[in-house]
Amino acid sequence: MATKEKEVKETPLMKQYNEIKRKYPDACLLFRVGDFYETFGEDAIRASKILGIVLTKRGAGSETETALAGFPHHSLNTYLPKLVKAGLRVAICDQLEDPKMTKTIVKRGVTELVTPGVSMNDEVLQSKSNNFLASVYFGKKHIGVSFLDVSTGEFLTAQGNDEYIDKLLQNFNPSEVLIPKIHKNNFREVFGEDYNHFYLEDWVYKEDYAVETLTNHFQTATLKGFGIEELSEGIISSGAILYYLSETQHNKRQHITSIQRIAEDAYVWMDRFTIRNLELYHSYNPSAVTLLDVIDKTLSPMGGRLLKRWMALPLKDSQKIQSRHEVVGYLKDNPEILKSIQFQIKQISDLERLISKIAAGKVSPREVIYLKDSLNAILPIKALATESTQLAVKKIGEQLDSCDLLRAKIESTLNQEAPVAIAKGNAIAKGVNEELDELRMISNSGKEFLEGIELRESERTGISSLKISFNNVFGYYIEVRNTHKDKVPPEWIRKQTLVNAERYITEELKEYETKILGAEEKIYKLEVALFEDLVNWIATYIKPVQLNASLVAQIDCLTSFAQLAIDNKYVCPELEDSFELDIKNGRHPVIEKQLPLGVPYIANDVFLDRETQQLIMITGPNMSGKSAILRQTALIVLLAQMGSFVPAESVKMGVVDKIFTRVGASDNISMGESTFMVEMNETASILNNLSERSLILLDEIGRGTSTYDGISIAWAIAEFLHEHPTKPKTLFATHYHELNEMSDLLPRIQNYNVSVKELKDTVLFIRKLVKGGSAHSFGIHVAKMAGIPQLVISKAQNILKKLEKNHSGDALHGLKAEKTEMQMSFFNLDDPLLEEIKDEILSLDINSLTPIEAMMKLNEIKRMLTKK
User: Fold this and answer.
1) pTM (predicted TM-score)
2) 167 within 8 A of 312, measured Cβ to Cβ
3) Are residues 642 and 728 located together in one domain of the fold?
4) What's the pLDDT tens digit per position in 457-503?
5) Could you give the maximum distance between any two Cα atoms of the chain, in Å?
6) Whole-number Å distance between alpha carbons of 617 and 611
7) Which CATH number do you get for residue 465?
């Protein structure tokens, strides 16, 4: 019987839970019950694992037994980020009415759906990274893609082939990708399994619906003003993002003020392999230092995010690049101005995310104060920039909005020490609202007020021991000892008789009681209403604040470049209208920072053009620094076209429009592809996309297959690049010295090698690029340095000698022939076999041989003698 009762009691709540859960089947539902957020069933099992909270059971032993895990509602900010970072979509279900006001079950509903790509929570977001939600649509001709950062209001779209979209997905690194259900498999095949994805119904991805959604949102008649009306696939993917926002209860989004096209032709093309190979902002190796780690000297979150964008999308327009260089040069030459600007930027909070929170109505009083302080910090920057002699800096200064009204309004409405939560009270300043000031007076000066009444009444009545107190039964009262009972005025109402005293109430006390008890609640309601009004009023300033944020981000990036140039002795590259690339004493920006103290970085010259030295063939042993020279060339070009100064003595260059690299064996074995297949895929992508302004870096092409195959493929690729009508500038590093012969046949191929110094039985890597081919590899020396057993080393040296001796013919055939020849002449006194055994024995270092190696050596000599 008890069990049944228990079941019945439980039903209304669980019924309500199940109804809401049905609407959000794929989200983890946080269900507010009293002071807790509870999760049930499967959600509870997942949440308890991720959060490390206790898993219990509701209705244990009954038919409705279900798993349960919860946490106090005020810990939401601690637990929510953990769930979202684990890739869960979290639906927050709150109580929509005051439990005191209802006799039945409290109304509940989902007030927000937080997903990895849609979050305003500071704990989920990283300050210097965007948190993009992406949407991908597979059209007939192109794939459309859109990126939206709800926390900053940035909205971008593009369309193109799968390679271009893959590159963008890598660059923008979205936390969540929306895909039409019908294209589930296409996405996995083209872009892999690495993304957090969510499938939407196919009807969402329709052009007319998307255009209507976007024009309604931006309140425009067409999309022409945004320059995206031609991008039908891009529009469809953008419409799906806005649909998803409304589905996740994010309906306040006036901070998304425009949508931008990612103009493919305005930026340097780098394929996805290049972005990975150059380790721009992430690396396969978790402990590796990336280019971003070295060059990021930004001081604001907006600047940090923009720097990543500039790195992903380097410019091709030489005027725009030079304009950035000029600003960097101006700041570098005026250290006082640079220091002042940097000092002010440090005072600026994340303007983009603050104004987005205002738009969404999710901002705290403390954050509004941060907004005001940040806008105040912009004023000195505006003044400095406006007075500048440098035109681009002056222009930024003129565009910065001082937002005078906005700053004044926040200043006068809020206390400077406003709390994090409005409920803490004291957010609104004195003098804003008369009623509020009065109520605060009552609330704060209650004690003094009562003491005043006490004093006045005791003097009026002559009752010296009169005392005012409070109890829960009838509130404030006056207590009079029985000895003074006869002095009580007639208007006092008797409430209680004690043994030696009487208690009375008066009209004045009742009135005051109503005031003081209602004051707290009224103060709270008034503060909330006044704060809401303020936030709604600030929301009309979204555009000027966003403009300020973007200008501050630009100044921050340019001051970052200036600081970088000062710290690391970078120089301004000269951009010319030629096809040349002339680097004098270039350095690798990352490696030079990793060297031990006092070890100089060996700088190198690189010269490429389309007439005399189009393809440089670099030979040299492994470990000599071939890859570093290749990578540093690409990084110097990339830094120059981002607008930064570069690590070199001087650089003269024509603008590069595509950078291709094929470096190292980035194995894709997990995807079931061999090293050689990956290498050929990447090389194919290069050979099919050449242009006359391309820069190509090929490292050890063909090493994934047999030597002769490798040499043939490398030769054919080098010849293709040389003969191609676009004559792309190429650095070709190889350990096949056979390729040195190409320079005799093809005029624009020049041989260089990374020099080494041979000592008696070791090599010194000098890491200097010098003209001329390299005679042989030093693989055996490297093996020795790595600690390969001496036995293996000497064996390898012997085989190498024989191979070199028979280089003209089939090397292995030569080896076999030599062995038989030795055995036939075994009885000759000038027997080469005996000579060889003698050499073998003499070259042995008995002291360093292990017993096992000694036995193996003997066995080998025995084999030499017995093989017929």
Assistant:
1) 0.79
2) no
3) yes
4) 888 888 888 888 888 777 888 888 888 888 888 888 888 888 888 88
5) 148
6) 16
7) 1.10.1420.10
